[in-house]
Design a protein that fits this description.
The chain is mostly beta strands. It is built from 3 helices and 14 strands. The strands form 3 sheets. It has a 7-stranded mixed beta sheet with strand order 1-5-6-7-3-4-2.
């Protein structure tokens, strides 16, 4: 994945009033934090950010943000949006180093549905996880991981262990071989009992962000 270069402006003031003034000026208030360094309040161009925000995998997109002739290597970690307009109201950028490992959600792409035996027999692809959180090297975050459905039959369960992950990437969930998808039987079809694959919800906490200021 290519790194995107962004120019930003430093903000002298923080707080709700300052943030509103920044938005009125066509900018989005943001902060760069992490890596045991001081947080830096910044603003980015709202029009430019609007185009970036809707890119697939924005939270795994590495960026170089230039502020006052200094470049920061970052990942977007949180985007606060207006509840009605969905415009970005604040962005959190996490500093990373090129040797760092970061936890990011990676989209799952399913290949060869037309060659999947179970689907051709009328089965249904039941996607349990359309995104999997992985620990990845900061400089080589994959855009996606792929699952080949060719030859899979009704009742087949695809676990994370069956997926070839990119070099250096490991699941953040390590206590079980969790389900990513199943090939389920159609209701009332094929005369088979549909296996009920349930996946408990796992809340993966973000790393502690002690140096993140309130805005």
């Amino acid at each position: 994945m290519e790194t995107i270069d962004i120019k930003a402006q430093a903000r002298d003031k923080v707080g709700k009033g300052s943030a509103r003034a920044t938005r009125r000026a066509g900018q989005v208030p943001a902060v760069i934090y992490g890596n045991k360094q001081d947080a830096i309040p910044i603003s980015v161009n709202a029009n430019n950010w609007r185009q970036l925000m809707h890119k697939p995998g924005i939270f795994s997109q590495l960026m170089n943000i230039e502020v006052n002739n200094e470049t920061h290597f970052v990942l977007p970690r949180d985007i606060q949006q207006h509840p009605v307009s969905e415009e970005a109201e604040h962005i959190d950028f996490l500093r990373v180093t090129k040797n760092a490992t970061v936890a990011v959600g990676i989209n799952v792409e399913f290949l060869n549905e037309d060659k999947c035996t179970g689907l051709k027999l009328g089965g249904v692809l039941n996607v349990v996880r359309s995104q999997v959180e992985l620990n990845c090297p900061a400089i080589s975050i994959p855009e996606k991981i792929t699952v080949d459905l060719e030859g899979l039959n009704v009742g087949h369960t695809i676990h994370i262990s069956a997926i070839n992950l990119p070099d250096g990437c490991t699941p953040t969930i390590t206590d079980r071989d969790f389900t990513v998808a199943t090939i389920a039987a159609p209701r009332g079809g094929l005369g088979e009992t549909e296996e009920d694959e349930s996946e408990e919800t796992v809340e993966v906490s973000e790393e502690t962000q002690d140096d993140k200021p309130d805005n």
